[in-house]
Amino acid sequence: MTLSDYGVLDRYQTRTSTPRAQFERVDPVVWGRVESPELATFDRYGYSVIDALLSPDKVAEFSTETRRLAEDPDLWLDERLIIEKKARRVRSIFEVHKLSAAVGDLVRQTRIAGLAEQILGSEVYLHQSRVNYMPGFTGAGFYWHSDFETWHAEDGMPAPRAVSLSIALTDNHPYNGSLMVMPGSHRVFVPCHGETPPDHYRDSLREQEVGVPGQDDIEKLGQAHGISQFTGAAGSALLFDSNLMHGSSNNITPFPRSNIFLVFNSVENTLGAPYAADEPRPTYIANRDFTPVR
Amino acid sequence: MTLSDYGVLDRYQTRTSTPRAQFERVDPVVWGRVESPELATFDRYGYSVIDALLSPDKVAEFSTETRRLAEDPDLWLDERLIIEKKARRVRSIFEVHKLSAAVGDLVRQTRIAGLAEQILGSEVYLHQSRVNYMPGFTGAGFYWHSDFETWHAEDGMPAPRAVSLSIALTDNHPYNGSLMVMPGSHRVFVPCHGETPPDHYRDSLREQEVGVPGQDDIEKLGQAHGISQFTGAAGSALLFDSNLMHGSSNNITPFPRSNIFLVFNSVENTLGAPYAADEPRPTYIANRDFTPVR
Lengths: 294, 294
Description:
The structure is a homodimer.
Chain A: E1 23-24, H1 42-45, E2 47-50, H2 56-70, E3 81-84, E4 89-94, H3 96-99, H4 101-108, H5 110-120, E5 124-134, E6 142-145, H6 147-155, E7 162-168, E8 180-181, E9 188-189, H7 200-204, H8 215-225, E10 228-229, E11 237-241, E12 246-248, E13 257-266
Antiparallel strand pairs in A: 1-9, 2-11, 3-4, 4-5, 5-13, 6-12, 7-11, 7-13, 8-10, 8-12
């Protein structure tokens, strides 16, 4: 049983047994007041690039810190650590703001959380934090998706009033699996076809298989919006809307990629029961402590 | 038994049971005299881009022609037609210069074969021709390799005195699986580790698995030479040395890629017995009719 089975209003129905057409989102994109010049085009494109968010010194510090975590034997059996099938290497570590004091401090900095507050127009809390490691040679990409679609279906996030900040710890080239986005696609909600299987998150964090958008939908968005890549030096960051369509190719180059990934949600948009899954996902993936940052 | 088992001199030993280190190639890159300005940097980088080799009209003509071939039921059981595992679609059609009169005419044009002659310093013949189709959404990439390594090991090509011309029939973006090359890597031969299994070509045309360079070698080349991508509008072409290290990522975008791929070999570099395989590959993959083009 899901919320919609009980007749609860669901403006973003997804994971339905019959396919549904994509539609214009009703919620705003910018809920607050944009003051940082870097965020000027956020409303239009659904993302903004912030160059040199971290200095080279800080990049080095965080790289050491996140490498330390990936190599910490105490975490090997921790479920917050996700292993990549093909490469047999660490792909992600969740709740990194709790595992690393340095990342925890970073989250609380005004210039970080403040970016999210400008867009979301309220206090914000951390919905998810992780560090991602995409190895060279065998780095698996991930297929097109909207994060909000998953957070709504599986975590019970009511509206697309959340933003993600991806901070590059390595240089992003066009050819090493850097993030591809469809600028403007954040205004279109693409319902996914098919019901969520139990414990879906265990597989979906490794490889997206269920709950992915249809090719017709991606084709339509691709024709309408085109594709941009988030490239740039280590230390640069991408802030993007929770409903932006994005994905990445695999990485066969010798140049690995890693980043810190922070998701801020509005305190006025806290999680309820999942809209299209039997059980909510674990709190290390979808935090249910809604205490505002700071 | 292979040629080297008989004590035949092999300056490019590969597919050996013990790993061998990469080494500087002894043969020249440019054997003739470069006259076309587009080829000015061929010697240095191992490739040249020729913008607008085909006009938009010709691109449209060849696209129709190659689509016709991919859909021709008479070819479905033809072994020259290669099917991609994952997408269950046509990946390549070999000997396309015989299957299509238009492609046959193209090969014989002075401005096409002439490019190869300038580099190779002799008359040239067609070692291989094919059309490649990389679908959107599920297009598989291919791992790093030198074509010459395969042509030497499996086809008995003595020296890297051959060039490939890849003519784009669709736009090449940085994100839809376009060719990645390591500029300057053509001067380094990377022996591959492991003996060639029988009928290796049947699998290797779909997915490279055996006879691929080691990660240490790719790492070293990547650090020394970096990576460039062949991007540009449909109709542009890349002429590249047979020993240039190249590969491509997968293509999850809605934008498919297709190209005509022509390999010219010097008539002074014709094939003998394979250097590291029991049997030569079929002639639709490695032509043994050495009649010069024109």
